């Protein structure tokens, strides 16, 4: 079967490897779609990356159960599932423990059902502490930010202010129901948020970019005794914060990434319920599709972000 692996800096290749067999309590899943994650982009673009063996990766996968291992109880061949896995989702088949699979409705396309990132976004929304009537400022409206924006509205935010530097992201925010959008290339985003809130600041500010400038904006834009949610995946070096402002404002600061598999699964189940019921939109967040043989091109596009780029999905 075909499977993609990272072999060096900026170099991902497709290999022919043996098809796995499901062990006890495992499912063999034929992968239909696997999203490209920004965390993988950081590894792919790291000039210091080195490994003696190919690193098979991909963790945003969905597909169809084709075989079940001994002792499985919940699933059967033909079930449509999304997965939580770190075993190499850029592959035609993958074997995973059945507890890391969630069933999909028949009406949900596989490319919409990218369980792991949807679960991350729903967990971040849950940890945000958004209350009914809150003003929420979201800094960064890519794929993950678009999910969080919808989650914030479902949590009861009465006003959502979206900030980005790309026109396609600002347009996405409008489509998803943001009340105001701010182009950070043209305006001082923190000052605009303060203006829009009559100098008070947003009740909750969610940073979803992974960049220093967004942390600085969030620090300035959140109200006294507000909540600052760090969701962006920060890579390649340290970040600085103005602790004097954090202290003076008495902020609640939440680092909203989960590393507990059970927490991931709770978020994925929540996301799939919302997706199945039509309360969560994923299709507008997807922009580029590539067959597995073109995965190197997909990573190049994710790094360069051509006009209109939001999220790349590998298909099989």
Automatic annotation (TrEMBL):
Gene3D superfamilies: Medium-chain alcohol dehydrogenases, catalytic domain, NAD(P)-binding Rossmann-like Domain. The keyword Nucleotide-binding does not apply. The keyword Zinc applies. Keywords: Metal-binding, Oxidoreductase, Zinc. InterPro entries: ADH-like_C, ADH-like_N, ER, GroES-like_sf, NAD(P)-bd_dom_sf, Zn_alcohol_dh. Residues 8-314 form the Enoyl reductase (ER) domain. It comes from the Bacteria. Transmembrane segments: none annotated. This is Zinc-binding dehydrogenase. It comes from Cohnella cellulosilytica. The lineage of its organism: Bacteria, Bacillati, Bacillota, Bacilli, Bacillales.
């Amino acid at each position: 079967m075909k499977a993609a692996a990272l072999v060096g800096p900026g170099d991902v290749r497709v290999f022919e490897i043996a098809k796995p067999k499901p062990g006890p309590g495992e499912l063999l899943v034929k992968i239909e779609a696997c999203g490209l994650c920004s965390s993988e982009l950081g590894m792919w673009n790291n000039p210091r990356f080195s490994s003696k063996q190919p690193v098979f990766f991909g963790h945003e996968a969905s597909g169809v159960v084709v075989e079940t291992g001994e002792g499985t109880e919940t699933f059967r061949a033909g079930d449509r599932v999304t997965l939580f896995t770190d075993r190499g989702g850029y592959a035609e088949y993958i074997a995973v423990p059945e507890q890391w699979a969630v069933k999909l409705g028949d009406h949900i396309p596989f490319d919409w059902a990218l369980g792991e990132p949807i679960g991350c976004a729903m967990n971040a929304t849950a940890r945000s502490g958004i209350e009914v009537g809150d003003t929420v400022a979201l800094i960064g409206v890519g794929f993950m930010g678009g999910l969080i924006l919808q989650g914030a509205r479902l949590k009861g935010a009465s006003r959502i202010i979206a900030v980005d530097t790309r026109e396609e992201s600002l347009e996405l925010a409008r489509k998803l129901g943001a009340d105001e959008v701010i182009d950070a290339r043209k305006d001082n985003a923190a000052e605009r948020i303060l203006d829009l809130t009559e100098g008070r600041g947003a009740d909750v500010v969610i940073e979803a970019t992974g960049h220093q400038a967004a942390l600085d904006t969030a620090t300035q834009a959140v109200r006294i005794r507000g909540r600052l949610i760090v969701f962006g995946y920060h890579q390649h070096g340290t970040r600085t914060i103005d602790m004097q402002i954090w202290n003076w404002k008495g902020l609640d600061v939440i680092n909203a990434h989960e590393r507990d598999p059970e927490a991931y699964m709770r978020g994925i189940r929540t996301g799939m319920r919302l997706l199945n019921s039509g309360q969560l939109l994923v299709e507008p967040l997807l922009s580029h599709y590539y067959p597995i043989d073109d995965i190197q091109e997909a990573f190049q596009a994710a790094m360069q972000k051509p006009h209109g780029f939001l999220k790349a999905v590998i298909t099989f």
